[in-house]
TrEMBL record:
<dbReference type="InterPro" id="IPR013149">
    <property type="entry name" value="ADH-like_C"/>
</dbReference>
<dbReference type="GO" id="GO:0005829">
    <property type="term" value="C:cytosol"/>
</dbReference>
<dbReference type="InterPro" id="IPR036291">
    <property type="entry name" value="NAD(P)-bd_dom_sf"/>
</dbReference>
<dbReference type="GO" id="GO:0003960">
    <property type="term" value="F:quinone reductase (NADPH) activity"/>
</dbReference>
<dbReference type="InterPro" id="IPR020843">
    <property type="entry name" value="ER"/>
</dbReference>
<dbReference type="Pfam" id="PF08240">
    <property type="entry name" value="ADH_N"/>
</dbReference>
<dbReference type="InterPro" id="IPR011032">
    <property type="entry name" value="GroES-like_sf"/>
</dbReference>
<dbReference type="InterPro" id="IPR047618">
    <property type="entry name" value="QOR-like"/>
</dbReference>
<feature type="domain" description="Enoyl reductase (ER)">
    <location>
        <begin position="11"/>
        <end position="322"/>
    </location>
</feature>
<keyword id="KW-0521">NADP</keyword>
<dbReference type="Pfam" id="PF00107">
    <property type="entry name" value="ADH_zinc_N"/>
</dbReference>
<dbReference type="GO" id="GO:0035925">
    <property type="term" value="F:mRNA 3'-UTR AU-rich region binding"/>
</dbReference>
<keyword id="KW-0560">Oxidoreductase</keyword>
<protein>
    <submittedName>
        <fullName>Quinone oxidoreductase</fullName>
    </submittedName>
</protein>
<dbReference type="InterPro" id="IPR013154">
    <property type="entry name" value="ADH-like_N"/>
</dbReference>
<dbReference type="GO" id="GO:0070402">
    <property type="term" value="F:NADPH binding"/>
</dbReference>
């Protein structure tokens, strides 16, 4: 039996419950992984609240973890062996547990020089950043982009990576105090999206042209600002709906021939080749110090409910993990 955290229904942090789960031996191409660190992500919160649907309930939450290979199925073909350090971020939810059986196609070997905690903090967010700035909207030198939640874990990685691509990054945060964090993580400018003059500041920065893209994990609360900030042919890139869905209409889009897209890591990183190649790029960015990974808070496994309350109340910034061992 292993300890796990599941939900039987969607709702607030109170729906999280600790349970003992039996675990079966890995079959064929499956691998038993003993978790050492679990990534804490907004997807976990959105799954818990029902914003993103989970196929079956009850369900163990968590999309990202790192650990040690303990046992292999009989048809492993990817060079994995017992004792290897591996991580994953595109497997079905189920990371909130001590041990888990995972198909080998989701597993990524972690380089010796990358600690477990760093890998658990960056895999999901790094993968997401990669498709946001290379595929959802390809950032080119000099392109103006607005990044909401620039002080958050994913926001920090987007801003750093976008800055490396020579984009002009406007970091959007919820308070003046958080603007410093945005500027420390590659933003050229920082704005407070609660400031009544925010739009005029963005237009001043862009010389009234507006931005080419808005990256928005928040949704409803920032949608008005987002669309007013876009220039002609600009694109609104949604990768989360923390405050609810953004209202989008064709009349709004046609006002400046705008585009809007909703994204999911499971579409952009669905095949093994893309997954491994992107992981290699993330690790290389860390090695070259082009990405600085700062872990803000480390929760213990039995503090997962507290971690969700902190996320719900926006008491945590940056990259946060759950330590298992």
């Amino acid at each position: 039996m292993v300890k796990a955290v599941q939900i039987k229904k969607t709702g607030g942090p109170e729906v999280l419950e600790f349970v003992d789960k039996s675990i079966y031996k890995p079959k064929d191409e499956e691998v038993l992984v003993r978790h050492t660190a679990i990534g804490l992500n907004r997807y976990d919160l959105e799954h818990r609240k029902g914003i993103r649907k989970i196929k079956d309930l009850p369900s163990v939450l968590g999309v990202e973890a790192v650990g040690i290979v303990e046992e292999l199925g009989k048809k492993i073909s990817d060079g994995l062996k017992v004792g290897d350090r591996v991580g994953y971020c595109t497997a079905p939810p189920g990371a909130y547990c001590e041990k888990r059986v995972v198909h080998q196609k989701y597993l990524i070997k972690i380089p010796d020089e990358i600690p477990d905690e760093i890998a658990a903090a960056v895999l999901f967010k790094g993968m997401t950043t990669h498709y946001l700035i290379n595929q959802s909207y390809k950032i080119k030198p000099g392109a103006f982009v607005l990044v909401h939640g620039a002080n958050g874990g994913l926001g920090q990685i987007i801003c750093q990576w976008a800055a490396d691509k020579k984009g002009v990054i406007i970091g959007s945060v919820s308070s003046d105090e958080k603007m410093k964090i945005a500027l420390q993580n590659g933003c050229t400018y920082a704005v407070n999206y609660n400031d009544k003059d925010c739009i005029s500041k963005i237009m001043e920065i862009t010389q009234s042209r507006g931005v080419g893209a808005v990256y928005d994990p928040i949704g409803y609360a920032t949608s008005k600002l987002s669309f007013e900030s876009l220039g002609k042919f600009g694109i609104y890139v949604s990768y989360g709906q923390i405050s609810g869905s953004a209202p989008v209409s064709f009349s709004l889009l046609s006002s400046r021939s705008l585009f809007a897209t909703g994204t999911s890591i499971y579409h952009y990183k669905h095949d093994r080749f893309t997954l491994v190649l992107t992981a290699m790029e993330i690790f290389e960015m860390i090695r070259k110090k082009l990405l600085t990974i700062r872990i803000n808070k480390r929760y213990k496994f039995d503090e997962i409910i507290e971690a969700h309350r902190d996320m719900e109340n926006r008491k945590v910034n940056g990259l946060n993990i759950i330590k298992v061992s």
